[in-house]
What does this fold into?
Amino acid sequence: MSEVIIKVENAVRKFKENNALNGVSIDFEKGKIHGIVGRNGSGKTVLFKCICGFMPMTSGKITVSGKVIGKDADIPDNVGLIIETPGFLPNYSGFKNLKLLACIKRKIDDKKIMETMKRVGLDPKSKKHVNKYSLGMRQRLGIAQAIMEDPDILILDEPMNGLDNEGVEEMRELFLNLRNEGKTILLASHNKGDIEYLCDTVREMDHGNVISYYEQ
It folds into this structure.
């Protein structure tokens, strides 16, 4: 049996009268791509935010790489993520934005940043400011930011937003390569093609519940 790297146990998140998560329990195995599907408001993004430590649960427990979120660690230290629209400083280049972010943890150098930008199809030497980027270029930069520090886990909420067909194909191949490198990926997408092409397991959520599960 594969190692469980993320364990969600009876996770509840209430907003006034509404339960965004309604006692969700999921084990995510290491080294696989796990798809989360469901319409808007089903609880996908709230689940991702709770796993990342961005949003406290009302009750329940989430363990990431052996650490209980909110107890052993406020946020997991081995996670790269895209949740909602990536935010960057508009009057700096893509490279400058990533360099500023990399200075927080000081885990990588300029060479690694440049390699990562090339890996997602961006020119690290371009002086173009991010406010001149297309939506697809911003999304590529967001993916670069998520993967540049070589995290064990990637949490990706609609990572193909704004990408054209060529971009989607390139990012699909990137995510498969990352899985083959041993990464664990949680992927939320409304695109049925992304889910069918990429995911090893798929869970459907509705009204804060996991209503189905299957393996591919």
Summary: The first strand starts at residue 4 and ends at 15. Residues 79-150 form one domain. The two ends are 17 Å apart (CA to CA).
